[in-house]
Amino acid sequence: xxxxxxxxxxxxxxxxxxxxxxxxxxxxxxxxxxxxxxxxxxxxxxxxxxxxxxxxxxxxxxxxxxxxxxxxxxxxxxxxxxxxxxxxxxxxxxxxxxxxxxxxxxxxxxxxxxxxxxxxxxxxxxxxxxxxxxxxxxxxxxxxxxxxxxxxxxxxxxxxxxxxxxxxxxxxxxxxxxxxxxxxxxxxxxxxxxxxxxxxxxxxxxxxxxxxxxxxxxxxxxxxxxxxxxxxxxxxxxxxxxxxxxxxxxxxxxxxxxxxxxxxxxxxxxxxxxxxxxxxxxxxxxxxxxxxxxxxxxx
Length: 299
Prior knowledge:
By secondary structure, this protein is an alpha/beta fold.
């Protein structure tokens, strides 16, 4: 069809011509939009792509954070139960409460460095030792005498009326550092200060359970699992419903009776740590109270 005939046809059928032109224009427009979409994605597509990208980035960050946490967080210790032989290479450091454990308890295979009135302030200077051996040595001499696998420390009652929880904990940390230097391979257990019975709990005096709890909280802060230093809340085993030393376990409100020592021992035997790199009817009589620097020596 030549040009003249085409023009004649278009004039004769204007509606059909308009329809054909409309279809052609529509198809051309779709082609242009398709090309534009490829080069410039729509806002909705951009949002979807951004959301997917953000989700992927978040997953990567979460994975990285989880990996970091797994590699930097200290492992949670798992307590194990043991028999008395676990204490063959153990040393207990403490005041008259620990001395009662040495004299009337069943852990006679352990070693002891204890003395009536011993405190964290005097433990490095005051001669003490194993009461079963009538021993009198310094802590430095004791720690140098042999290598121990475990060292238990319970001090703090005699100095409740001295210093603050913070200053007390600083001195305690210094003692622990000395023990660690002398015994680099030992597991060190920091035993909580035992509570006193309600009969001895004097809110207005130096001996009270509020102060005991405050200092135990400071003591717990010295735990360092990476260095095998663990805090043991022994009061879990001896406290009554009111947060005092159970009166059935003591005659004087401070010291455990001979028969009650097994409660303490059982707690210790069910709260031990194993690391990959570490290899009775008698009643304990209360000590006579003496004044030293204005603070009564109770244990």
